[in-house]
Specification:
It contains 22 helices and 16 strands. The protein is of the alpha/beta class and about 625 residues long. It folds into 3 domains: about 170 residues; about 150 residues, Reverse transcriptase/Diguanylate cyclase domain (Alpha-Beta Plaits, 2-Layer Sandwich), CATH 3.30.70; about 250 residues, EAL domain (TIM Barrel), CATH 3.20.20. Helix 18 links the parallel strand 13 and strand 14. The chain starts with a helix and ends in a 6-residue tail after the last helix. The N terminus is likely disordered. The protein binds ligand C2E and calcium ion (CA) (2 copies). One calcium ion (CA) binds next to loops.
Length: about 625
């Protein structure tokens, strides 16, 4: 590792310097020494040369051990042959201990200390008991040189080692400061949404808890405003993520201008924003105004990549502690209120109330039930006849799913289909409905009702895995139904902003011979471009316009316009929700071709539908 290498290199360099200085010192002393002392000094210098060699070969561990042991032994030998425990060589002992602590560590320090203690003690005792003869010299000039050199050697070595330690400390302090700085930076980043620069969910949660504690002491409440763009996905899908990101940033800027300095605006994720603000008693009106101004801000057009983009927003408000004490609870309730606003037609806001929670709990248990319903055979497919009202004959049927509960009651598909879509279970359910419908229609044809078709409602989720054409083909093959007898009903909203992914699958299905009908026409965008692009064969006029025909004049021009437009595009028109004869007559006078509704029959079980068909065959002229 680089840090170790650096450390080893430094230690080796220090050992080289120390051995050089020590050799110089020993050499100086040797100039004024004689006899055995001189012998030991040369021995010491030889060892120092070995130390220098190891240091030079980057083996600082061996160099340190060798240095301290050889110098200590040399000093001890010098003391032994001279003045024993009183010898000035022992002046260098403490310095050797300090070096060993700095350079070596415990495994060097303690043995060395033990050796010195033993040597001093044993030499002292032996001298005192007369077993060893110490030689006490008269003070001479060379002793001054000995002391000076020892002090210079140990002083110099001590100085460079301590200086290294100090530098190390300083660099550690600097490192520490940098780590702290980075920590703060990471902390700040962890609290910021990278796309918009607004606070993020984490920060908001911490702030919520802090302010909530504060609030509880007084009598104020905290308001959480949950804001969600209504039609952001089509922007992302059709113009790309870069455009979507720009829109979110611009939206963040607009919202930032609306909040008070003390409020916190955060991006909660995706196209969701959240505002946390204090709310003193009687201040609810201000919160409602804030919600409204955010919705207004979203409605102002955005200009991105030379394109004018229009979106809208919905908001939900919940208060702490009234609607919950924890952050997650209050957010969940503000979210539910926001969903209510969307369900109530979008582009508006709602304040949470307990009924929303009950509804959501019911939905939750329904979702759990959905998972088992298919396995337990709780679903069935009902068929509602579709009639050619010009030729007074049954031409097909719409397949409508039914979910019967154990108590015999039915859950409306309008309720459970959106749940099945949001959980993805619709893929399996839709596949099952498709299979049942094709098998049933093939049976009608075998029973002699040639030319009968079946219309199956399709969810956009069923396009997601990309293999809808493959699945349809397999079902057609299995059931023996000609592709021309199958119609898939799609709503316009499914096609808006949908990608080439959907287009490709629809083209492939079209090539198979499968037809498409646009369901609930008139309630969505009523955009002709989509009809052409997706090769629709039929338009189904939504029952809300049809049912008004018999009673009011208001819907007649609209239905008339749809029929004329369909005619000019060579599309057939099916009117749904015909409940009485007056409506039927109106449709006939407007030139409508086909219809379905309670006037003839509600959706029937497979068996009942066959019986109904057989009964009608016998009584054709009374149909229309
Ligand atoms: P939709 O496709 O618009 O289906 C027509 C709805 O109008 C059906 O309600 C039908 O029972 C009802 N209806 C038919 N004739 C009349 C009439 O004369 N008067 C009135 N007032 N209503 C009439 P249903 O069966 O409750 O289905 C509701 C919606 O659930 C359907 O609307 C469709 O969007 C969806 N759905 C039903 N089955 C399926 C399915 O298998 N898959 C998918 N993805 N969606 C389904
Ligand atoms: Ca339908
Ligand atoms: Ca419909």
């Amino acid at each position: 590792m680089p840090a170790d290498f650096h450390n080893d290199a430094l230690r080796s360099r220090r050992m080289l310097q120390i051995s050089a200085v020590s050799s110089a010192g020993l050499f100086l002393i040797s100039l004024v020494a004689d006899g055995r002392i001189l012998l030991y000094l040369w021995g010491g210098m030889l060892m120092l040369a070995a130390v220098a060699w190891f240091a030079w070969r980057q083996r600082p561990g061996i160099a340190v051990n060798l240095f301290l042991w050889s110098i200590t032994l040399m000093l001890s030998a010098l003391a032994w042959i001279s003045e024993g425990v009183r010898d000035m060589s022992l002046l260098a002992y403490p310095a050797m201990l300090v070096f060993s602590a700095i350079l070596g560590g415990r495994r060097l320090f303690f043995p060395l200390l033990l050796f010195m203690l033993l040597f001093a003690t044993v030499t002292g005792i032996l001298t005192l008991t007369g077993l060893h003869q110490a030689y006490y010299y008269e003070l001479a000039y060379r002793h001054i040189i000995f002391v000076d050199v020892i002090l210079l050697m140990t002083g110099f070595s001590g100085y460079i080692l301590i200086r290294d330690q100090r530098r190390l400390m300083a660099s550690l302090r600097e490192e520490n400061r940098r780590v702290k700085e980075n920590e703060n930076l990471i902390g700040a980043l962890a609290n910021v949404d990278q796309l918009t620069g607004l606070a993020n969910r984490r920060y908001l949660e911490t702030e919520f808890q802090r302010r909530y504690r504060h609030c509880r002491d007084g009598d104020c409440q905290l308001a959480v405003l949950f804001f969600d763009l209504d039609n952001f996905k089509p922007v992302n899908d059709s113009l790309g993520h870069a455009a979507g990101d720009t829109l979110l940033r611009q939206m963040a800027e607009r919202m930032n201008k609306l909040i008070a300095p003390d409020d916190i605006l955060c991006r909660f994720g995706g196209d969701e924003f959240l505002v946390l603000t204090g709310c003193a008693p009687g201040e609810e009106k201000r919160i409602h105004q804030l919600a409204q101004s955010m919705i207004d801000a979203a409605t102002r057009p955005f200009f991105i990549m030379d394109t004018l983009i229009e979106v809208s927003g919905s908001a939900g408000v919940a208060y702490a502690p009234r609607h919950g004490e924890s952050f997650s609870e209050v957010c969940k309730h503000a979210d539910l209120a926001m969903y209510q606003a969307k369900a109530d037609g979008r582009h508006t806001y709602r304040v949470y109330d307990d009924s929303m929670d009950r509804v959501s709990r019911e939905k939750l248990s329904m979702t759990a039930g959905l998972r088992d319903a298919l396995k337990n055979g709780e679903f069935s497919v009902y068929y509602q006849p579709q009639l050619d009202i010009r030729q007074a004959r049954v031409c097909g049927a719409e397949a409508l799913i039914r979910w019967q509960q154990s108590d015999g009651t039915f859950v409306s598909p309008a309720e459970f289909i959106p749940l099945a879509e949001s959980t993805g279970i619709i893929v399996e359910i839709g596949h099952w409905v498709l299979r049942q419908s094709c098998i049933a229609c093939a049976q009608w044809q075998r029973l002699g009702f040639a030319g009968m078709t079946v219309s199956v409602n399709l969810s956009y989720v069923q396009f997601r895995d990309g293999d809808l054409p493959g699945k349809v083909k397999a079902i057609l093959r299995e059931s023996g139904l000609p592709a021309q007898a199958l119609e898939l009903e799609l709503t316009e909203s499914m096609l808006i902003g949908e990608s080439v992914h959907v287009q490709r699958q629809m083209d492939e299905l079209h090539r198979l011979g499968v037809r498409f009908a646009i369901d609930d026409f008139g309630t969505g965008y009523s955009n002709l471009g989509y009809l052409k692009r997706f090769n629709a064969a039929r338009l189904k006029i939504d029952k809300s316009f049809v049912s008004g025909l018999g009673t009011s004049e208001r819907d007649r021009p609209l239905v008339s316009a749809i029929i004329q437009m369909a005619d000019s595009l060579d599309l057939a028109v099916v009117a749904e929700g015909v409940e009485d004869e007056t409506t039927l007559m109106q449709l006939q006078s407007l030139g409508c071709h086909e219809a379905q509704g309670y006037y003839w029959s509600p959706a029937l079980t497979g068996d009942h539908f066959v019986r109904w068909l057989q009964a009608q065959a016998a009584d054709m002229e009374n149909l229309c």
